[in-house]
């Protein structure tokens, strides 16, 4: 069997298991298993696949057929132009979340020596991307999962980002001696009863504590917003990623807790994706 035949055959199997973009996934796994670049593959696509590569590739294909996310299998994902380590302990960074980074950077323009806190950091992709933009002089990231923090620390090292990581149940272990110019968060926001309706890739392989936003999906927005004023400068911004049906509810929470200029921003699909407000 040639390299190309192996890729094509795997793509058929993936498709039969209802994997979208099956040919793309098959190629990505082959490249990882073989260590080939795209150029290498084009030069050797008609060569016979080696036993060693075939064994590695077959293991990956079986995992993908079970709907394990491609990024978990590859061990990496790309976000805002940077590579991040991902595994079962963190959510896979999504392109929609880049909107949160972009809107945060817009509001950090002109802020000198900006201090930014990322609450529920997960893989660390948000705070690391903000730090690498050069817009934050100090960057702090919080999570209640030690396993997630371990991944985030690896990602900071991988990207040469100077981030302070804090293990904490929200603000519990965050010093109240420091105030921030911005708090950014992509918290768990899926309603508990909706989790069983999610795709297999999410429902079976993403960490539950990174998904479950309690009965109405708003638990973390309430808790973070109610405490945020104690850690934000006046005029500082609170930035949230939200579920596409949560804009009105999250906006109301922010208004009730002293935030003004509350704004809803849509993603590239035209769905509500970010809510932000300024502490007055």
Structure description:
With 280 residues, the protein is an alpha/beta fold. It has two domains: 64 residues; 203 residues, Rossmann fold (3-Layer(aba) Sandwich), CATH 3.40.50.150. The chain is built from eleven helices and nine strands. It has a seven-stranded mixed β-sheet with strand order 5-4-3-6-7-9-8, with helices on both faces. Strands 1-2 form a two-stranded antiparallel ribbon. A hairpin with a 2-residue loop joins strand 1 and strand 2. The model has no long low-confidence stretch (mean pLDDT 97).
SSE inventory with pairings:
Blueprint: H1 3-16, H2 22-34, H3 38-44, H4 51-65, H5 70-74, E1 76-79, E2 82-85, H6 98-108, E3 115-119, H7 125-132, E4 138-143, H8 146-158, E5 164-167, E6 180-185, H9 200-203, H10 219-228, E7 232-241, H11 247-256, E8 259-266, E9 272-279
Parallel strand pairs: 3-4, 3-6, 4-5, 6-7
Antiparallel strand pairs: 1-2, 7-9, 8-9
